[in-house]
Amino acid sequence: MALAIGVFDGIHRGHEAVLEAALASPLPVKAVMTFTPDFKSKVTNSARPYLMTLNEKVAEIGKLGDFSSAYVMEPKPELVSLPPKEFIERILRPLGVREVYVGEDFTFGRFGVGRPQDLSQAGITTYVIPLVKIGGEKIGTTQLIAALNEGNLDKANEMLGRPYSFTGIVEKGFQEGRKLGFPTLNLYPLEGQETIAKGVYATLTIIGGATYASMTNVGTHPTINELKAPAIETNVLDFKRDVYGQKATIVFLKKIREEMRFPSVDEMVERMMGDEKVARSICQPYLEAKQKRA
Fold first, then answer.
1. Full-prediction pTM beyond 0.85?
2. Which of 111, 153, 195, 227 is the most exposed place for a label (fewest CB within 10 A)?
3. Is 129 left (phi over 0), alpha (psi -120 to 50) or beta?
4. How far is CA 209 from the centre of its chain?
């Protein structure tokens, strides 16, 4: 078995390099070993933000190629207490692992003291994939989260090699947007889950297998019924259905402007009408390209 090991949160270009190297192995069986989103926070007993739920991460990995299995490590005491040698003998050996693919910054075992050379010394062929960099800066999940927190969508998308997206379940909000002629799908990050900085964005919305042009406000909508915590509110253009309780994915293409507090509702609506025109112009080429591929 050829095994790619990593947290793989966000599935950025650095992760893809490791996963694609494993997929290129001549061995007939390729698999992935990853970790639950709460693994690091529970092991270190400190808050560690994450981007993707486990299901999203496994689904994104599956898009890269045909892995036969995905092994998920949970923060159980009997696992996190294993020294590197025991991790190899009790976890990797029984799986029949012959090759391991990891990134340069990979560590494993209790307190993270295990290094790739420990795998090699145990007789497992180990491939250490060089870090992927942009302008000399490492592409890592920490750097990706920082770019998103700064609202630097262009940089985040370059790190990902695709537009950043957020997936969640549509929930009912105050329905203020509906009253103003801009009904929204409301999504909320889970506890500990990071998302992009406040602002208004041109987005695509994927729901029910179809893709629509949309514009999304991330924030607390300070002009009307200001929220205590940021929400992701998406006005799907030319879309009239109620989809509460359904899964939706918001794909962030371009930032239009910062979130603002307007002097009046009328001024806010006028600005939103302008935002809609900008969003349509940005989304249209993506939708046309998708149609051509279909």
1. yes
2. 111
3. beta
4. 19
